[in-house]
Amino acid sequence: MEVVVGRRPSVFVRPVSMEEGRRLQRISRTAKDPVRLRRAIVVLMSAQGQTVRDITSLMQVGEDYVRDVIHAFNERGFDALDPKWSGGRPKTISDEVREHICLIARTSPADWKVTAFSTWSLSKLAEHLAKHKVVAVISRETLRRILRAGKVSWKTTTTWKASTDPQFIAKMHRILALYDTPPADGRVICVDEFGPLNLMPRKGKAWGPVRRPKRLRATYNRHDGVMHMLAALDLATGKLYYRIRRRKRWREFLDLLKALRRRWPGEKLYVVLDNFSPHKHANVRAWAAANEVELVFLPTYGSWLNWIEAEFAALLRPQRHRPPQPR
The domain that contains 193 carries what CATH number? Predict the structure, then answer.
């Protein structure tokens, strides 16, 4: 009997909402934990419609790892991005009591007829728990760990945004269609700006005498100012083209478009980009209409749909996570 070995079917993350997409984009730019950062980039690329093979090529990980991350996100959501550590001694405080502590911490002291202060500190909360016999005695460090495990943290109030774009769904489907089935008469290019960039002294590691570290001057001057990177990602080849400029006005952006036009003469260019005002300048629109360049704008607050976002996130990984000290 002849056995035919075919390509494994592609796996994609479930459809994500606009808020989830923006949250993935934020994690891919700000996460300090390398495991959480890597998983977020994998999910973000899958949400953009990239295949498992594309993700493994960029992230330099195995296909099984990518599939496991996608399946875990589909089942558990953002909890799947956090690494799970095991070990330690058994808990002395039950899960029910821990949940009750987190519930009290999320309430206001005024709800318990405590008017001497308006918010809970760790010491005040520990006294309150002992007074109401929730626990006999609890240290501030134990209380802090319980709140952290229950995802209760000390934070300021914040705001959130919803897309006001009435054509959000139509624009999203248009962009995903360009990703899935590139037009035969042209080429799809994702464009975005990255920066500002500037050189700063960073503390590093080096061999030296014990208790005599090398010193690096903390003062520095930006004699040449800050720079900006204008980048374009060719989805057909996966190559990233960029240029460094002092500013990112419509003139610099138009020069980038002209350079892309010269690189691929005779092909129509479908440029995916966000709603940054220089992108919509009248001179840019007029030149694009006259030179077979279609500007495909992302929906409002939908920059996470741009494939180049994952490239930027991967570009930052070596800067955030330096290799360990040599053995």
Answer: 3.30.420.10
Asked if residue 285 and residue 183 are part of one domain, the reply reads yes
- Cα torsion 36, 74, 181, 265 to 10°: value is -10
SS3 122: helix
231 forms beta bridges with 192, 242
Q: What does the pLDDT look like over 93-110, one tens digit per residue?
A: 888 889 999 999 888 888
Which residues are CB-contacts of 120 (< 8 A; sequence separation ≥ 6)? 105, 109, 128
Query: What's the Cα-to-Cα distance from 220 to each of 197, 223, 247, rounded to whole Å?
Result: 15, 9, 22
Query: pLDDT at residue 282 above 70?
Result: yes
Please, are residues 60 and 34 in contact by the beta-carbon 8 Å criterion?
no
- The mean pLDDT of 23-31, rounded to a whole number, is 90
171, containing H or E segment: helix 168-180
Instruction: Express each pLDDT in 214-227 by its tens digit.
Output: 776 666 666 667 88
Q: Which two tokens stand for residue 24?
A: 């993935």
Residue 173, domain member (yes or no): yes
What pLDDT does 264 receive?
A: 93
Q: In what order do the strands lie in the sheet with 240-245?
A: 240-245, 227-234, 186-197, 268-273, 293-297
Are residue 111 and residue 59 in the same domain, yes or no? no
Residue 276 placed within a domain: yes
Select from 190, 198, 296 the least CA-distant residue to 237.
190
Residue 23 pLDDT level (bands cut at 50, 70, 90): very high
